[in-house]
Structures are given as C-alpha cells and as structure tokens.
Amino acid sequence: LILIIAETAASIALHILAEDFGEMAESYSEAFERLPLHGILKPGTAAEMAALARLRNLVVHRYWLVDDPKIYREARDSGVQVVRDFIEELRRARSGTTGLSWRRRRRS
Fold it and tell me: In 3D, which of 96, 77, 12 has the Cα closest to residue 46?
C-alpha cells in the first residue's frame, strides 16, 4: 500500500510540475521538493512526502534492508497524516481557499 500511495502522489506532483509549470523533476522526491516553490505545498509537507518517496525507493530497490516493524510504526504514527495533509493542501491550493494557490497554465 505504501508503494501505491507514494507512486500515485508522486505522479500527481510530476503532473502538476509538467502541465502547470512546464518543469520536469528527476526523481519523485525532487517533484515533492519543488512544489513549495510554486506555493502548492507547505515546505514541511513536501519534505515528509519526499521522505515517503525515498522510502518507496528503498522498498523497491533495496528491499532486503527494510525494517518492516519500523515502517509500520512510522506509517501508523505520522505517515497517514502526511498523506492526508498532501491531499488537503493540493485541494486547497487548487481551489484557492488558502494562501497556497496556483494558476493552471493555459495550453496554446
């Protein structure tokens, strides 16, 4: 489930950067780290999501080093909330109901 959440959130971040700002990120974590530069996410949320992306990379590419109980504890303690924050900040930024907002670029 962590992999699916991390990959889906990263795909959203990459899409926003590419479609709305004409930018490319070289990694999932970089995509999250760039969103605060455009007022899409708060820096703390972006940092936490970048950490989730790095965890995803560890699970996918170096799974033998993964400490399953530690991942479970972190997901239970703060991981779920950071994903909720990510979703809420995107929603608010898109609707313009907070100081975080972005304007979608028009395609020509």
Answer: 12
